[in-house]
Design brief:
The structure is a single chain. This protein is an alpha+beta fold. It contains 10 helices and 12 strands. 29% of the residues lie in helices and 26% in strands. It has a 6-stranded mixed beta sheet. The chain is globular and about 50 Å long. Mean pLDDT is 91; it is low at 1-21.
């Protein structure tokens, strides 16, 4: 097993040509639960153990916690509060070139949406989106997520049209069509929603992401984990709702993907984080 330890609009997207990289890019996505207050150090330890270059955080409502994590990891960061008591953040050991907080600028988002471009040591710019969609598992909730996904896809449409490689990561609060959900392992609220939905969990949001051309990095790197692995909750890990998606990057460039489920991660938040290594 691999050792995993260790707002401004983007007006000039990078070329659609993907240049060879000297070192893989390590990406990490983490829902840190209610701002992470009182848990900055455990969260930072979980993140540090995975040696990421770029991190997307959601429920990043406490700016002091984000600053503390970034200081400990020696990373730059941008913090993007959403429209209603939610926030996203992006941290990186590279250079943040520009960012835009769509959570405040776009109508129809219940949580947060951050876009940022990061310049790696070779001078190549990478576009990232940190996404947090509406929660809960009833059919009406999936419909709300679909409306929010319309906003997300519209925000990043210019990058798809330019064939600009980019990544969308975060808590989509949605289930993959390939996942084998064991209803006995999900939290009680999800089980109740499953009953209310006629004993099914809607999966259209992730299906739409795939249809739009986005690649689920975990599914590309480890299909078995993508089918059976769970990120939510850490106590009832019966669902995978946290993702790192890429666009314009070939599947062969996804060197690895994982769900971090070590003991500390089980208690640092109510979500397990996900990671990916991209060549």
């Amino acid at each position: 097993m691999e050792d995993r330890r260790w707002g401004r609009a983007l007006f000039h997207p990078p070329s659609s040509i993907i240049y060879p990289r000297l070192n893989p890019m390590r990406v990490f996505s983490y829902n840190i639960l209610d701002g992470g207050e009182g848990r900055a150090d455990p969260l930072a330890e979980v993140i540090e153990a995975n040696r990421p270059d770029v991190i997307g955080l959601v429920e990043a409502t406490n700016g002091t916690v984000i600053e503390r994590i970034a200081h400990r990891l020696k990373m730059d960061f941008v913090h993007a509060p959403g429209s209603v008591s939610q926030a996203s953040a992006l941290l990186t050991r590279w250079t943040i070139r520009d960012s835009i907080n769509h959570g405040l600028l776009r109508k129809g988002l219940s949580k947060s949406l951050l876009e940022a471009s990061v310049v790696d040591p070779k001078g190549q710019a990478w576009v990232f989106g940190v996404v947090h969609l509406h929660h809960h598992a009833k059919e009406a909730d999936e419909q709300q997520r679909e409306r929010e996904l319309d906003v997300v896809l519209e925000v990043f449409r210019r990058h798809r049209e330019a064939n600009t490689p980019h990544l969308l990561m975060g808590d989509f609060n949605a289930n993959s069509p390939m996942q084998e959900i064991d209803i006995d392992k999900v939290k009680p609220g999800t089980r109740q929603a499953w009953e209310a939905n006629g004993k099914q969990i809607p999966r259209r949001v992730i299906q739409r992401m795939l249809q739009a051309g986005y690649l689920d990095t975990l599914a590309a790197a480890d299909p078995k984990a993508a089918k059976a692995g769970g990120t939510f909750t850490t106590q009832f890990p019966g669902q995978r709702v946290d993702y790192i998606f890429v666009y314009g990057i070939e599947p062969a460039r996804i060197q690895s993907g994982w769900i971090e489920q070590d003991r500390l991660a089980k208690y640092a938040s109510d979500h397990f984080p996900v990671g990916a290594v991209i060549q």
